[in-house]
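pinned: reference chain
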Amino acid sequence: MHLHRRIWIQLAIFLTVSVVAISVMAFGYVKLPKFFFGVGTYTVTVELPEAGGLYERANVTYRGTEVGQVKQVKLNNGEVEAVLALNSGIDIPSDLDAQVHSQSAVGEQYIALLPRNATSAPLKDGDVIPRDRSTVPPQLDTLLNATNRGLEAIPGDNLKTTIDEAYLAFGGLGPEISRFVNGSTKLAIDAKQNIGDLTNLVDNVGPILDTQTDTSDSVQAWAAHLAEVTTQLKDNDGAVRGVLQNAAPAVHEVQALFDRLQPTLPVIMANLAAVGEVAVTYQPALEQLLVLLPTGTEAIQAAALANRNTKQDYKGGYLSFNVNVNLPPPCTTGFLPPQQQRAAALEDYPDTPPGDLYCRVPQDSTLNVRGARNTPCLTRPGKRAPTAAMCESDEVYVPLNEGFNWKGDPNATNSGQAVPQPPPGTPGSTAPPPPAPIAAAEYDPASGTYIGPDGQVYTQSNLAHDESKERTWQSMLIPPGN
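pinned: its structure tokens
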């Protein structure tokens, strides 16, 4: 039979396309070289306790990704071995577990390679995964038989009740149960990652439990107090509800109050900080004041008890109005001299003279017993000083004099202490000029003559004593010349 050239060309094209398609299917899809000759793969043997329904050409996964197939399932000296053909180029840690799983309830087993760490050496051709590192799923018929026996042990009516109650208990809780399972899984993963710390906790939990045992009385007391608190909360449920309901409006009112006080509150708090420091320093004195306050109140009330609840017209206190003038006399030692003191009629307010002005007499003197010199030093118990600087230092108070100077300079002293002077320009700060020196001369009463400082003789007859003139007390009241 003679075929036309066109037909031969068509047959050649068809044959070429067929050969290419068969080659693509054989090499690309069926992967015959890999299946028959192991091209691009290496073999690893897994020892299994039993076949577990595993079959040849089953998938092998690593971290959920397919990395090979089961090449052969065989018996070797009574032990089941599965030969795996794994793809080259994928490093799989050798420290791993091989687990046989089912993709569905009717079969389709596969092997999942689960590494224990990522630092071990990768698998290589000829490696063997021992039996203690492999697991297989339970037999489906064994599971069904166990389930059937369990169901047969439950009476039918009770089983129906159990199913109904389980439906009522878990019906519609799919998302919640899913979150619970996911949380449990994450908890288990975290526990596995921290297995060392958990093991240490379990191994050393003895001292903690012993502590709980030793403090059992305290724990019971705490539980009793907590029960009492909860009971009070239950009894005052209405009041607690009222507090919770009114808490938001109260918070808004407090916030509004702080907003109104915002311009002045920082200044007040700053001032209170200074006051707080003073209060901390004077804490012992404040405590003593609080201790003496009741006694002082009693004394005041006792002074007002005179003639109380009586029919007398006069009702008053036990008070004494005896006038004691200059008893004790005022203290003038340590203050400015009289010629430098300001007149009481002045109305200006110049700066205070530099230095400290206070009564500088002995601390045990009867003059001005409540003066600054007897101020207790709170940071130095037992010490008294007029200034804080003297309190904090080792300086000892030295008086100027005894204070009983009824004539002369009240600040006269032999201790060398300086008496404060007013600043220049202050009224009264300029001391008056000293008085002229007084000249002394011998005087002759009979003639009325005396010798002056210049050596001349002077006469002043009115200084002479006139014996002829009558001297009575009435004449002493008459002005001279009359």
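why pinned: The longest strand covers residues 65-76. Residues 426-432 have pLDDT under 50 and may be disordered.
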